[in-house]
From TrEMBL:
One of its GO terms (biological process) is L-histidine biosynthetic process. The keyword Cell membrane does not apply. Belongs to the class-II pyridoxal-phosphate-dependent aminotransferase family. Histidinol-phosphate aminotransferase subfamily. The keyword Transferase applies. It comes from Chrysochromulina tobinii. Its EC number is 2.6.1.9. This is histidinol-phosphate transaminase. One of its GO terms (molecular function) is pyridoxal phosphate binding. Gene3D superfamilies: Aspartate Aminotransferase, domain 1 (3.90.1150.10), Type I PLP-dependent aspartate aminotransferase-like (Major domain) (3.40.640.10). Residues 58-384 form the Aminotransferase class I/classII large domain.
Amino acid sequence: MRSANLRLSLPKRILDATPPRRIITGPRFTPVVQALPSIVPFVAPDEIERSRGQKFSVRLGANELTFGPSPRAVEAMQAAAATAWMYGDPKSHNLRQALADHHGVQPLNITVGEGIDGILCNLTHLLIGPGDKLVTTKGTYPTLNYFVAGKGGLLQTVPYGPDDRQDLPALLAKAWEVDAKVLYVVNPDNPSGSWHAEGKIESLIEGLPPGCLLLLDEAYHELGVDFDANAKVAVDDLRVLRLRTFSKAYGLAGARIGYALGAPEIIAAFDKIRNHFAISRVGQAGALAALLDQAYLHEVRERVRHARETLGSIAAQHGMRCLPSATNFVTMDCGKDGAFARLVLSELTERNVFVRMPGVPPLDRCIRVSCSSDEDLRIFSEALPGALKDAERKLGSK
Ligand SMILES: Cc1ncc(COP(=O)(O)O)c(C=O)c1O
C-alpha cells in the first residue's frame, strides 16, 4: 500500500512557496560535524571477537578490573534490578552524600555522570566552542579529544617527556602560549601508567594562565602508590576540576558511574546541560555499596600490586622492561618501534589474548596489559614468547 503524501495537507501558501522535492536530502549536519572525519576511535574487544568469530581466552586490554566489583556491590545491584522500572534519582542524592563524607567535602562539590567519559563530554558543552583551545599530551587518554573536535574546539598537544611521563612544564608553557581554556592532565596516566607526586600538581595549578581550567583526570587514583582519598588540592579552587570513577579500582566499568570534585560554581554549571537521567538506579546502588566497602578496595589494591609484580617478572624473562605503573595495567616496552609492538599485539590476538597498545610514539613501542589473576597472567605468559618470536620473524621478512 502506498503511504499518503502528508505534504499535500500543508497550507496552500506553503505548498506554493516550496516546490515538491524529488531528491531526499537528509538532515543538515552542523558545519563542525560535516568537517569531521568518519572514524571509529575505539574498537571494543567484543567487536574484535565478533569479527574473528572467536572469544578471547583472556581480556587484558581494556583497563577493566578483571577481579570484578565488591560482592556487596553485586548484591546491591541485584536487589536494585527489581526497581529498574523507576528512573534513577537525577540528583544521585545518596551517592553524592556518601562521596561527600568519603572525601570530607559537601555534596555541592560533587556532580555524578555516566562515567568520567560522560563528564568529559559535558565539560566540553560548558567550556568549548569553535576555535577554543584545549591543551593535552599527545597520546594520552583520547576520549576528550573527540568531544572537543565535536564542538569545533582546537587541540594543542605536547609530546610525552623523555621519561615517558606527561611533561608538566611543557604543558603549562603551551597553555600560556595558546591561551588555553582547558589543560587536561591524566594522573596517574593512561597509557603510560606513570604518575606525578602531589606537590607537582599543586605547583602546576599555581602556574596556570588566567581563565584556564586544569582538568585533572584521576581515573586510577585509588590504585596509586600514595593513595589518599582526600588528596590535598583544595576542592573549592576554581582553577581545577578533578575526575574520579567507579570503573577502575571499584570494578564497575559496565555500570557507568563517575564523578567530578570541584568548586560549587563549576559543579552547578553541569546541571544546566547534563543528561539528568543518565545514571541508572542499578548503577547508583552498585556504586554506593562499592564505596562503602573500603575493605574490598584495599584487597583490590593488594591484588593489583601483586599482578604488577608478576607482569614485571614475565616481561623481564623475555628481556622486556615494564614502565613504572600506578594503575591496574602495566605498559611493557617491547624494545623496538611501533611496527614491532603492533606485530606483537596482533600475534597475541591470534593466540586469543586481548591486550592493547598506545597509539602514538614514543609509547607505541609498548603493549599495555591489565593486571589480572595468576591464572589469566599464566595464559598471557604462555602466549608471549611465541608472539614475540613470530613478530621478530615477520619484522625480519618485511
Ligand atoms: C584516564 C581515563 N579516564 C577516563 C576513563 C574512562 O572512565 P569511565 O569508565 O569512568 O568513563 C578511562 C578508561 O580507560 C581512562 O583511562
